[in-house]
Amino acid sequence: MSGRRLATGGLIDRARPVDFSFDGKAYQGFAGDTLASALLANGVRLFGRSFKYHRPRGVLSDGVEEPNALVEWRDGARREANTRATVAEIFPGLAARSQNRFPSLKFDLLSVNNALAPLFAAGFYYKTFMWPASFWERVYEPLIRRAAGLGRNAGLADPDAYEAVNLFCDVLVIGGGKAGIAEAMAAARAGGRVLLCDERAGLGGQALSDGEAVDNGALAALPNLRIMNRTTVFGVYDGGVYGAVTRLTDHLPVHEAAGPRQRYCRIMATRAVLASGAIERPMVFAHNDRPGVMLAGAVRAYIHRYAVAPGARAVLFLNHDEAARTIPSMAGAGMAIAAVVDGRAASGAAVHDAAKAVGAPVFAGAAVTRALGRMGVTGAEIRGADGGMFRVACDIIAVSGGWNPALHLTSHLDGKPVWDDKIAAFIPGSLPPGMVVAGAAAGAGINEGIIPLWHVPSRPETSFVDFQNDVTVKDLTLAQQEGFGATEHVKRYTTLGMATDQGKTGNVNALGIMAGGCAMMGTTRFRPPYTPVAIGALAGAHRGMRFRPVRLTPTHGWAEAQGAMFTDAGLWKRAQYFPQGGEDWREAMVREVSAVRQSVGICDVTTLGKIDIQGPDAVAFLEFVYANGWRNLAVGRARYGLMLREDGFVMDDGTCARLGEWHFLMTTTTANAARVMQHLEFCHQVLRSDLDVRFASVTEAWAQVALAGPRARDVLARLVDDDADVSNEALPYMGVRAVRLRQGVPARVFRLSFSGELAYEIAVPARFGADLPAWLMASGADFGITPYGTEALGVMRIEKGHPAGAELNGQTTAHDLGLGRLLSKAKDYVGRAMSQRPALCDPARPGLVGLQPLDGVSPLRAGSHMLRPGAPANAAHDEGYVTSAAFSPTLGHPIALALLAGGVARQGETIRVYDPVRDGDALALVVNPVFYDPTGSRLRG
Amino acid sequence: MRLQCPHCGPRGLAEFTYHGDATVQRPVDRGAGSSAAWADYVYLRDNKAGVHQEYWYHQAGCHAWLVVTRHMRSHEVMAVRAAMVRA
Ligand SMILES: [Zn+2]
User: Fold this and answer.
1) Which residues contact A129 (CB under 8 A, 6 or more apart)?
2) CB neighbours of A563 closer than 8 A, spacing ≥ 6?
3) A65, A114, A310, A565 - which has most CB atoms within 10 Å?
4) Is residue B70 a part of any domain in this protein?
5) Is A187 or A48 the better-scoring residue by pLDDT?
């Protein structure tokens, strides 16, 4: 077919030819073309194959509503599927491909689906692929995906950059057609900040598509008005927040694209004007999906915007007056008009006058019943007013069943569009707060003289309602016959309106067909986004390393220099182990544990949450938030604290040190630091605002290192000033002292032990944290002082039976963890009342126990379940599960902590530890969870 | 959605954490253990299609607990005040 570019006119830049390719074939267009207009100008009509039946498809529209001309856009990692050729601007070097064809667009083997259409009728997924279940993964799903998929995912990381901004305005105008321009102008002249967003490259909207001149020169003179082109407002959110995406470089070749590809805008607007125009409805008749069947407004757009005649000889099929303006447009573009088919018995004067002016015959009370031609339209079958059928040769059928206001954004906050009989269209109902609607979006000036024509009955009944999801009239009928009459049911049963176009062209026709001439039933509502939004745009810069913040402790650089391997603890990086000479993690852990148990080691514990609490009522506050008592804690001493939730379960634990009469320092677990802070604020501000107390998170203010092992005191004595007494008498177990290090640095020393050894935690202001490990290493060099990581830390805490994250899992009580004796009976505290519920105190509940394999070697894995030996391995006989497990270097065999029904009362029993997922099956002895030094003599020594 | 923090001004939703019903009153603990009143306080919540008061925490801001009055159908925020009542 020859080229169809008109010699003059259009908004394209003829001085800038653009070379691009489609399916590997080279074409030329002009700057200002979309892929659709450029290919139409080159005589291309076939753009892709349809979703289910692989039917040949061309271009239906000229905008975002396009359901047919969907292509793969760009190459390699930038390949983007389902791109609407009707809005994608071409650029030099662009490579686009058709989708859903195999092996080629013209010859598609899978179009056999078309012949098997009965198999693919509505609900076929539910009916056909029921059994056997094993066929789903192996047969059905791959088959369906192969046959019914649209574009291909690039499968590679997106190489483009995205950004997000917050924008604020008094008035947001959505849509830059004539109505939007007028609204923006008026709002800007009244003062205030105005944002005008339009999805196209320039303002003008439908007026430009109709060949009208649009004067927006005055806008530029308004300094308080900002125009954002290529910007789609895709969603309305609570409180006057609007989501928008600006396509910054999608229209440029990669080497010209500086900066981010797209910008996600969160727009805070006091008021908004929706001037989004209207979307035209296709006519529903047999084979109305053939390439060459095109919306009448799109025909005008290709002529006036792009100087492309989409065909040589046209049939125009309409049912309202406005579509008649297509007649002079087509005639002006040199197209012959073979017939004007008006579905109305009494054709309007607008239609007659326009047709008469160009000598086109008008058939009133008639209908196009079928598009002729396979790969593209070659004619139209028409039923005249008298019922007689005849055929007219043509290569394009321009259709207009009226317009639907583009009211999508009005329904995002639960607004319900309402039916307006006068214009046979849904118009906005209740609106989001602050929004008004203007122009065609409000139903103004559209569908003059319309008589709805939802469906032209014809044979064969291959009449498409939803083009993108291949839903036909027959599917709708079938759904109704099978009892799926309600709109929402029909949608799900037939997949109507559930493709990426969200039924922009099809939904209202479908509702009209289902109403069957009766009053319109139901309505159609839309959810964000109005058009598809790249996930990358929503993610913005928050991906890869920037997906979330990374927190490093002050000793991180030192640990890195020691060759530490790191692990994630929330946002923190913590040293996991310090391998030496090719050690694996386990060898390093064994060496580190042994060093601490036999001599001395150091470990960063900065990540524990630290909350500074001060005030005359500090003690009363601790009494309220902790389950155990605080009144008798002396200054200079610390205590273990157990915190419950109000429902009586354990929330967190830690220590709290009394630094002064009114001054405490609370520590939390690393994982719960923020949660505990929030909880304390709640307890104070909401529950106990009578207490005079203040607190602040000081986690980052202090670097803290644990010094643990039998030689810890020797090392500490060398670290601190000569006059600082760190003897057992001066600094006993759970003692706290402010000291000065030999380097002149102020420090706090807490005699706390997580490892079970004689141990201290030394805190220095964070700015000295980078040096603290080196000072400690120097002080303990002759003891073989050894840095240890979270692996060794974790193993030693299991050896000591300390509950940690796996046991403090939100489902355990103080009794479960063997901490019931801590629950104070003498005061009110958060969780007290509910912790006394009989079921939470039931001794049969799973309680913390230790396990060791009977054979001394079988590993016990966390997550394994426990069964009585001989009992069936099913949930009914489940006795609990293993929470933490390790190989104990100290004991020389595997150990585990577990929550076992009945708890420590079952010490001495043999239990089966069963792990069907990882083929674990071993017998274990139930023991005291404190495997190592149960009397605590080492940590008090 | 945005909330008008009495200390920080209008701020984006991402800065806040939702907590729940602000109308429930913590019972006085007389040491008698759990009771129906406690179960109500901890577990039972009305789910009304109307005006609701709820706690929000300005986590990425001033750390204030706020009482937000919001319509549960429209999400309209009618009032925001600090939860803490100083003696
Ligand atoms: Zn605030």
Assistant:
1) A135, A136, A140, A144
2) A578, A579, A580
3) A310
4) yes
5) A187
Q: How far is the CA of A670 from the centre of ligand 1 (A)?
A: 25
The structural domain count of chain B equals 1
Q: Which residues of A touch B77 (CB under 8 A)?
A: 238-239
Token pair recorded at residue A408: 């999508």
Task: Give the residue on A whose Cα is nearest the Cα of B72.
Answer: A238
Interface membership of B26 toward A (CB under 8 Å): yes
Q: Do A239 and B33 touch (CB under 8 A)?
A: no
CB pairs under 8 A between A and B: 75
- Name the pTM for this structure: 0.89
Give the chain B residue whose CA is nearest to the CA of A414: B74
CATH for B2 = 3.30.2270.10
Assigned domain for B32 exists:
no
CA dihedral B25, B26, B32, B34 (to 10 degrees): 90
* Residue B36 located in a structural domain: no
List, for residues A764-807, the tens digit of each pLDDT value: 999 999 999 999 999 999 999 999 999 999 999 999 999 999 99
Q: What are phi and psi of A322, to 5 degrees?
A: -60, -30
The pLDDT value given to residue A1? 37
Q: Does residue B13 lie within any of the structural domains? A: yes
Distance from the alpha carbon of residue B3 to the mean position of ligand 1, in angstroms: 9
Q: What pLDDT, on the 0 to 100 scale, is given for residue A2?
A: 46
Measure the CA–CA gap between B23 and B26, rounded to whole angstroms. Answer: 10
What mean pLDDT value characterizes chain A? Answer: 93
- Domain of B65 in residue numbering reads as 1-23+50-87
Instruction: Check if the beta carbon of residue A868 is closer than 8 Å to that of residue A912.
Output: yes
- The answer, yes or no, to whether residue A172 has pLDDT greater than 90, is yes
Contact A684 B19 (CB under 8 A): no
The 10s digit of each residue's pLDDT in A836-869 is 999 999 999 999 999 999 999 999 999 999 999 9
Of the segments A70-84, A89-103, A377-391, A470-484, which one has the largest average pLDDT value?
A377-391
Mutate to test the interface with A, among B38, B40, B71, B85 (most CBs of A within 10 A): B38
Nearest-Cα residue of chain A relative to residue B2 = A239
Cα separation, A908 vs A929, in Å, equals 12
Nearest to A241 among B1, B39, B85 (CB): B1
A675-716 pLDDT, tens digit each? 999 999 999 999 999 999 999 999 999 999 999 999 999 999
Q: Which of B12, B29, B64 sits opposite A832 (nearest CB)?
A: B29
Q: Does B33 touch chain A (CB under 8 A)?
A: yes
Is-contact A611 A652, C-beta < 8 A? no
More confident residue, A131 or A565: A565
ipTM > 0.95 for the complex: yes
For A367-406, the pLDDT digits (tens) are: 999 999 999 999 999 999 999 999 999 999 999 999 999 9
As a dihedral over the C-alpha atoms of residue A546, residue A547, residue A552, residue A558, rounded to 10 degrees, the angle is -70
B68 — contact with chain A (CB < 8 Å)? no
Question: Given an 8 Å threshold on Cβ–Cβ distance, is B2 in contact with A239?
Answer: yes
Better pLDDT: A82 or A766: A766
Q: What is the mean pLDDT of residues B73-85?
A: 92
Q: How far is B53 from chain A (nearest CA, A)?
A: 14
Residue A354, SS3 per DSSP: helix
Indicate if the pLDDT at residue A916 is higher than 80: yes
Q: For position A109, what pLDDT does the model report?
A: 60
Within a 13 Å sphere around the CA of A193, how many CA atoms are in the beta-carbon half? Answer: 8
Residues 6+ apart with CB under 8 A from B57: A678, A681, A682, B16, B17, B19, B63, B64, B65, B66
For residues A289 and A117, the answer to whether their CB atoms sit within 8 Å is: no
| A685: Cα separation from own chain's centroid | 34
How far, in Å, from the CA of A193 to the mean position of ligand 1? 26
